[in-house]
Amino acid sequence: MPLTYPIAEQTLDNGLRVVVSSDRAVPIVAVNLWYDVGSRHEPEGLTGFAHLFEHLMFQGSRNVASGQHFSLLENAGASLNASTFFDRTNYFESLPSGGLDLALWLEADRMGYLLDAVNQENLDNQRDVVKEEKRQSYDNRPYGDSYERLVRLAFPADHPYAHMTIGSMADLDAASVEDVHAFFRKYYGPNNAVLTIVGDVSVEDAFDAAKRYFGHLPAIPQPPAAPDGTIGPLTEVHRDDVVSDVPSDLVTMMFRLPMDGTPELDAAGLALDVLAAGQSGRLNRRLVRDEQIAQSVSGGALPLIGGVSFGTLTGIASDGVDLQKVEDALLEEVEKLAEEGVTEDELATVQAQAERDWLEQLSTCAGRADEISHHALLFGDPNRINTRIDQVRAVTVEQVQAAAAQWIRAAGRVEVAYRRSENAGEQA
Amino acid sequence: MNQVLTTPPAVGAPRPWKFPEATTTTTSSGSPVHVFDRPGQYVATVRVTIAMPLLAEPRELEGVATIMSRTLDEGTELRSANEFAAALERHGAAYGVDVSSDALHVEISVPVSHLAPAVQLLAEAVTRPAFNQADVGRHVTIRLGEINQERANAGYRAREAFSGHLFDPSTRRSRPTAGTPDTIRPLTNAQVADFYRRNIGPERAQMLFAGDATGVDVAGIIDEAFGGWTSTAGTALDTPEPLYLVGNRVVLVDRPGSVQSQLLIGCAGPDRRDPAWGAAAVANHVVGGTITSRVDTVLREEKGYTYGTRTSFAAPRKGGTFSLGGAVRTEVTGAAIGDALRILREARDGLTEQEVQEAKDSLIRTAPLRYEQADSVAQQVGSNIANGVPIDFADTYLTQIAATTAAEASEAYRRYVGTDGLLVVVVGEAKEVRPQLAELDLGELIDVS
To answer: Which PANTHER family does the UniProt entry name for this protein (chain B) (predicted)?
Structure first.
């Protein structure tokens, strides 16, 4: 049965799509903007730019001083942030509903007039901050570069998903203020974004406020579409064997998967869940509980819109166990699933887990706003948030096996394996 | 028609807000049940919070409480570990445990439509665990592997060194909650079962539900599952006051290959028994609680040393801490510590009226956001129980904040931060960092490898 969250939509004259979901039961409102620019849009030499804007967008704009975006919203009781992904960038805040106008004004000022405040000084400063983010999130932690290695193996060099959102530090170092301005002018404008407002405001007031603050912003020339990333399943095995100072040996394998928004991707995601989700997943039962060759296993699908998605399976070897054993067991389970499929009970379990995840995601105004923006921007239909569970529930065991047989195979994978160097002693 | 507004629009007054109210009953076996009806929250959290001060662990078996907690669901009197997980997950439920220095929390989150069978399974784990040797042994092995992962994690190493050098060795909190290899490795299932028998029972437990209870007899479902629970464990021991080490000192933890230095700087702090708990939170917000606070304005926005740092006052039941944590690049470690200490010490000279007013607005106005989700209500109430304060302590806290003056916030801060010295922990490439530390006056240097 579909959910019943109300959805109202309007497109302003300048092309900004506005979606409103009123909920007067809570005293707060969530504002969420998705821009149709992610790392997949970045041409060679400009990797990391979409993410760099996630930083510059908080450094002030024409009428907002540096630091003021945060301080004005925090004083109004907001929780705020932004995130960058392969497919898009988003900017969001939740706050007591009396602050709705403030939030919209701040978002509009940086959508329209960010570049008044982007200069050499704050570019240099935020470039340093991004480098610290990369050191913290990738370089200074064990296995921190695994996804960088995997996407490089899983996709051709010029493929939109072959590089991570953090980008190349060399590209960032080479960026001039003019490069940064040009990137902004190309992608950031009302007709390349979705604005979602959820919570304690009437539909009429929300649309009025959206028009008041965003209505005067001019449309930008139609931005270039991201390069087409359509590509089929992997047909070979490519691996990257790393010897490094890691705490335990670890293997992660990656598979290409169908594009998001298709029943095939839902089926492939559920297949990976049967293997890797929860305590009752096949891999946890066999590798961790029964054979005790792994300390932990994990995995799942990462849905993407640009012609292909990907999914991963990871195992961390138990101390003293050869990583090859873990890899062999993972591959055996992969092949078994492709050849024999899943049981009705296994499928019902992962579907029930997906339903709980989805209901939790929608249980806050912020979470609902994010999914509304997501489905409006990438699929053109915010109402999909109400039918998402039905789509997942409609997947059959036959579809799961078919998706697994086509996409999740031992002979079509890439893999990174980390092993401790020979001379690394026992640490425990 | 559309005139561009060049100044920020006014913010309307927030609607009044109070922490959600509970309906409290008691199970047939004597445990309080607090039901928070949250309409529209279709995923409920059911949490069992059991008083379990770590003081109850024998010194040579530290970590037994953690292994016991992690094996509750790994086989019960009725089901194997695999059967239990399959049954619970088939209902769309997720199960988890958390061990703090004062309590054990066991919880499920589950769509309300599957509440009754999931609560039955929760009760089975809590009241009828099997503690088979195979399952306990497996968790001992997993914990030993986890210790290896922790040792490779700069943030974990910093927290471990901070606790180890902030608390006197006679205080349990000077050592890891989940035990060390020498105390974990010898654990047997008999010891785990014995710890359970002595420490877990209905006299020590409270049950929480948060979620949409429309048309559901939540208290009845919980009593049905837990009402028959019997145990010989009496009431829990009282947690003793911790003993702190004082003075300026720096602990340098060598982590070869590091490209950043993980910092943790701090000292003792208040706990919730202190009426200045709210004032301390206000001061923290000004000094280092957000990206616009005094510390990050310099370390991140002005100097670009870090992706971000945060300060916090934190406390279990008795005895709190103040700390500033973050990662900075190796070459500027000394400079960053110097700036951080200068800012922390200068804050003792007083916080401005404007800073304090803005911090109060932010802390008070974000409250409805913090407790929007059913699970966050359950988390808050569970930790209130563990910390020995009333279940609606969030209201007391907000009242304290609203009443805080700039002078009181400054005083609460000054009472703790920098008064008895500051402990500086650095986890990084020691050979690069040591010369940088020499230029600072940090007190005794303690090397850890």
So the answer is: METALLOPROTEASE (PTHR11851), PROCESSING PROTEASE (PTHR11851:SF224)
Say how many CB pairs under 8 Å bridge A and B: 227
DSSP symbol at B389: S
**For the stretch A324-358, what's the b/e string if a residue is b when 16 or more beta carbons lie within 10 angstroms of its beta carbon?**
ebbbebbbebbbebbeebbeeebbbbbbbbbbbbb
ipTM of the complex: 0.93
Q: What is the pLDDT of residues B199-227, one digit of tens each?
A: 999 999 999 999 999 999 999 999 999 99
Those residues of chain A that have pLDDT short of 70 are 423-428
Interchain CB distance below 8 Å, B373 and A216: no
Number of domains in chain B: 2
The encoded tokens of residue A142 equal: 């064990």
Residue A212 to residue B2, Cβ atoms within 8 A: yes
Mean pLDDT within B356-378: 96
Question: Is A32 at the interface with chain B, CB within 8 A?
Answer: no
What is the nearest CA distance from B29 to chain A, expressed in angstroms?
Answer: 30
**Are A43 and A179 part of one and the same domain?**
yes
Question: Rg for chain A (alpha carbons), in Å?
Answer: 23
Give the residue among B272, B412, B269, B425 at the shortest CA–CA distance from B348. B412
CB contact under 8 A, A70 and B145: no
Q: State both tokens at B170.
A: 């006679």
A71 lies within 8 A of chain B by CB: yes
- The answer to whether the Cβ–Cβ distance between A428 and B147 falls below 8 Å is yes
For residue A228, being part of any structural domain is answered with no
User: What is the per-residue pLDDT for A426?
Assistant: 43
Across the interface, do B10 and A348 touch by the CB < 8 Å criterion? no
pTM of whole model > 0.80?
A: yes
**Which residue of chain A is at minimal alpha-carbon distance from B142?**
A295
Nearest CA in chain A to B39: A25
Q: How far apart are CA A76 and CA A94, in angstroms?
A: 10
Residue A279 has a pLDDT of 94
Cα(B59)–Cα(B174) distance, rounded to whole angstroms?
12
Instruction: Give the residue among A241, A329, A250, A244 at the shortest CA–CA distance from A295.
Output: A250
Residue B235 lies in a domain: no
What are the pLDDT digits (tens) for B284-330? 999 999 999 999 999 999 999 999 999 999 999 999 999 999 999 99
Whether B6 is in a domain gets the answer no
Q: In the structure, what pLDDT confidence band is assigned to residue B3 with cuts at 50, 70 and 90?
A: low
CB environment B208-235: b (16+ within 10 A), e (fewer): bbbbbbeebebbebbbbbbbebebebee
Helix pair B393-403, B353-365: axis angle to 10 deg: 160
Asked if A203 is an interface residue toward chain B (Cβ–Cβ < 8 A), one would say no
Instruction: Name the DSSP letter for residue B244.
Output: B
- Do the Cβ atoms of A265 and A301 come closer than 8 Å? yes
Domain assignment of residue A43, yes or no:
yes
Q: B98-121, pLDDT tens digit by residue?
A: 999 999 999 999 999 999 999 999
Q: Which two tokens stand for residue B419?
A: 């008064």
pLDDT tens digits, one per residue of B43-79: 999 999 999 999 999 999 999 999 999 999 999 999 9
Q: Which residue range forms the structural domain that includes residue A60?
A: 8-214
User: What pLDDT does residue A423 have?
Assistant: 52
Look at residue B105 and give its three-state secondary structure. strand
Total count of domains within chain A: 2
DSSP run (H or E) holding B264 = strand B260-269
CA-to-CA distance for B80 and B175, rounded, in angstroms?
A: 33
Range of the domain at B371: 249-448
Chain-chain contact of B305 with A212 (C-beta, under 8 angstroms): no
Within 8 A of A273 by CB-CB distance, chain B residues are none
In which element (H, E) is residue A400 found?
helix A397-407
Chain A residues in contact with B141 (beta carbon < 8 A): 292, 295, 318-319
